[in-house]
């Protein structure tokens, strides 16, 4: 946690809550074994890195060698068009509803070429391209403010600096401001708060999760809170929650640890997301190998945690209380036999009650969304909860896969 002693002096104190939570079967547990629709991204073996939704279409960003952004018909998954993407790899992709005073759903992507691009599928090209000419740094992440008038990107480490860069999309050629001391390594996450305008969440491989004021030019004044997790942070996000909720932020590390934080960045939970497993050979069993991502929205505010297996299956987990160390987990739903390799990307299309996934097998699948209707509880006698130990071999495998992934233009591997 960051304790602010004055506007110019902050100190970082931290603790490391750990827990060995059990995994239980939800009374409404259900399973899906066949996707509704399926397609293949390409014939060159590209990974599906990100998925976003446009009206009538789903967009998917591909890893090297193509680095393209593909659009597929929402109903049939037939290809519509392919956007060029970024020359050196597309690192993030999202849909925004308004930008630069133009109100229409648009795709926004960041890339290792140092640019953030707003795409217009009607012209098969970008309509806005934000760069930092003369000081190009590869961008690993990006986000757009709710009013569409501020765009932010997080850079790779270059020399001794990693930058948070802000643009006004109406003047894309020159950044508004740059914060260069918030983080000291690759910046993997930038996310505007859904609750507080101009409050930015950032995370980095330096082990820090920070919040700062996006409109403040003076970086010493901009930083609001800092939490030190002590591990490389690969994902993080805000949780839609009431004002007095004890948990507002979630995080994920390269070593598959999962965490939750208060808005002041007090660490509440920190544990290996792969512990524990659920074995019930009569009905179902589940063992987590990696976290895919988390989902929280204004219409579905409770944090939903999506995890995957090496076999290409994935599941939805929930936690009884994300603010309590050791609170039990539940498996809500599982999906299987659609992918033959690691699931790299997932988009929950709440409007259409479907989940869209992309994998390292180049496949894109559409699945029925989870059902939270009450079902007959499984008997306690049929359920066996297990927390298997981790070995050094698994860590070596993840390091090898991460090195291979970097050569493909992706941020990290998930094995």
Automatic annotation (TrEMBL):
Outline the segment boundaries, as ranges, of region: Disordered. 366-415
Biased-composition ranges, Basic and acidic residues, are 398-409
Which keywords does this Swiss-Prot/TrEMBL entry list? Repeat, WD repeat
Q: Where are the WD-type repeats located?
A: 83-129, 336-367
**Matches recorded under InterPro entries:** WD40/YVTN_repeat-like_dom_sf (IPR015943), WD40_repeat_dom_sf (IPR036322), WD40_rpt (IPR001680), WDR89 (IPR039328)
Q: Which PANTHER family does UniProt cross-reference here? A: WD REPEAT-CONTAINING PROTEIN 89
- Listed name of the protein: WD40 repeat-like protein
Organism, by scientific name, is Mycena chlorophos
């Amino acid at each position: 946690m960051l304790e602010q002693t004055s506007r110019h002096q902050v100190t970082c104190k931290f603790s490391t809550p750990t827990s060995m939570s059990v995994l239980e079967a939800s009374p409404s547990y259900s399973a899906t074994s066949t996707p509704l629709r399926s397609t293949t991204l390409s014939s060159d073996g590209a990974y599906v890195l990100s998925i976003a939704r446009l009206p009538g279409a789903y967009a998917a960003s591909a890893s090297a060698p193509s680095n393209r952004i593909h659009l597929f018909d929402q109903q049939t998954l037939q290809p519509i068009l392919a956007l060029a993407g970024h020359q050196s790899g597309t690192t993030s992709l999202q849909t925004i509803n308004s930008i630069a005073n133009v109100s229409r759903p648009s795709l926004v992507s960041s890339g290792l070429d140092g640019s953030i691009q707003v795409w217009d599928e009607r012209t098969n090209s970008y309509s806005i391209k934000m760069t930092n000419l003369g000081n190009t740094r590869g961008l690993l992440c990006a986000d757009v403010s709710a009013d569409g008038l501020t765009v932010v990107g997080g850079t790779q480490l270059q020399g001794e600096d990693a930058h948070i860069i802000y643009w006004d999309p109406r003047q894309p050629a020159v950044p508004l401001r740059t914060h260069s001391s918030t983080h000291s390594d690759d910046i993997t996450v930038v996310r505007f708060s859904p609750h507080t305008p101009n409050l930015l969440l950032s995370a980095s491989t330096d082990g820090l999760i920070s919040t700062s004021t996006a409109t403040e030019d003076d970086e010493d004044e901009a930083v609001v809170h800092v939490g030190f997790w002590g591990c490389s942070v690969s994902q993080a996000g805000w949780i839609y929650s009431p004002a007095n909720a004890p948990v507002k932020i979630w995080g994920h590390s390269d070593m598959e640890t999962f965490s939750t934080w208060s808005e002041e960045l007090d660490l509440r939970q920190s544990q290996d997301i792969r512990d524990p497993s659920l074995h019930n050979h009569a009905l179902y069993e589940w063992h987590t190998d990696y976290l895919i991502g988390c989902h929280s929205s204004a219409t579905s505010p409770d944090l939903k945690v999506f995890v995957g297996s090496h076999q290409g299956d994935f599941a939805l987990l929930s936690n009884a209380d994300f603010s309590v160390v050791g609170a039990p987990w539940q498996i809500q739903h599982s999906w299987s036999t659609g992918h033959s390799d690691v699931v790299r990307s997932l988009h929950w299309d709440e409007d259409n009650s479907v989940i869209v996934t992309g994998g390292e097998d180049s496949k894109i699948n559409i699945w029925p969304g989870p059902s939270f209707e009450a079902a007959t509880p499984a008997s306690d006698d049929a359920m066996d909860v297990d927390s298997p130990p981790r070995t050094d071999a698994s860590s070596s495998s993840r390091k090898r896969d991460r090195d291979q992934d970097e050569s493909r233009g992706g941020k990290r591997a998930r094995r």
